[in-house]
Amino acid sequence: MPKIETSRVSGHGTELKGKATYLYKGGEGYAEIYENDSFGGKSYYSDSVSENDGKGYIVLNADFDNKKISGSAAYNLYGTRDNRNEVKRQVELTFKDTSLYKGSDHLKFNGEATGKLLSKDLKEELSGSYSGDISSNGKGTSLHYNIYTQGRNIKVTSRNGFSDSVYLHKQ
Question: Under DSSP, is residue 80 helix (H, G, I), strand (E, B) or coil?
Answer without folding.
Answer: coil
